[in-house]
Amino acid sequence: MRAGYTNNMALQHEKIYSFLRQTFSHIGVGNKRVERKKLSASVVTQADIDMQKAVLPKLLRVCPGASVIAEEQLSLQMWRKVRRSVNRKAGLYWILDPIDGTRNFSQGREHYAILLALYKHNKYLASWMHRPYFEDGFICQSGAGVSYFSAEKKMPLATVNSMSRDKLLCTLYIFSKRRSMAFKKISKILALSNCFDSISPTYCVGSEYFRLLHGEIDFCLFLDPKPWDHAAGVALLKECGGRVSMFSGYSYDARKCYLGDVLICSRSLDVHKVVVSELVQ
């Protein structure tokens, strides 16, 4: 990593956030044409492709020796090979989703985001998240807390450690048409439980993390979590005192795709204990 990056990390983090904002403002506006459909139900626009092409060289200049894992480069079939390559390296790797919530973006809806994280092995070093429509976002550095940006203003985000509702509020984020046994079991528990209420998802993973970080919901359940969708949000949530785990009992690993499993994300330790005790019966 460059000496300038390590010597003044906070400044570099803000520069990267500004770069993401400015790049999207030049590329994303009016560029919603759907280029192709992936094998999954999601879509790709020309803005996804152009955004990724513009951002990747910048990331490689910031950390010349790092690997880059970007969603539009990969199919799920390719991911195992990429993960083996990342695991063999002792260095850093970026995880980028150039536009999360592409379907919303292509249809003129407000919930879409740019997601970026920097990891070493399975330890997050920094994370960035920006929502162009709302002109807000988050930055975190491991051990230095989370900052929230809105209308050019920067403010620290407080850590939340307790529960504040009689019933915990959640969203169930299901984009895959495939329904796993884990999903079916969780759906049944949620329907019968007196502890939880649910609201409709935004259909943008980044916006669900925004809800968690602002305390609008207490927890969120994600089916089939993939690295590019969650690496940035998990880093922000952990840095702010939140907790994550897999329904299967495995620890979350940013390098893995968990097909058929469910990622449990809670805004605090207290909430997570209640959620896990109810769901994992």
Any descriptors?
281 residues, alpha+beta, five-stranded mixed beta sheet, 27% strand, disordered N terminus
Structural class, by secondary structure, is alpha+beta
Calculate the mean pLDDT score and round it: 82
Low-confidence stretches: 1-5
Strand content: 25-35%
Portion in helices: 25-40%
How are the strands of the largest sheet arranged? 3-4-5-6-7-8-9
Sheet with the most strands, sense and barrel status: 7 strands, mixed
Structure description:
This protein is an alpha+beta fold. About 35% of the residues lie in helices and about 25% in strands. It has nine helices and 14 strands. The chain has helices at about 5, 10-25, 45-60, 75-90, 100-105, 180-190, 205-215, 225-240, 270-280; strands at about 35, 45, 65-70, 90-100, 115-120, 125-130, 135-140, 145-150, 155, 170-175, 195-200, 220-225, 245, 260-265. The strands form three sheets. Strands 3-4-5-6-7-8-9 form a seven-stranded mixed sheet, with helices on both faces. A five-stranded mixed sheet has the order 11-10-12-14-13, sandwiched between helices. It has a two-stranded antiparallel ribbon with strand order 1-2. Strand 10 (about 170-175), helix 6 (about 180-190) and strand 11 form a beta-alpha-beta unit. The longest helix has 19 residues, at about 10-25. The chain is globular, with a radius of gyration of 18 Å. The N and C termini lie far apart (about 45 Å).
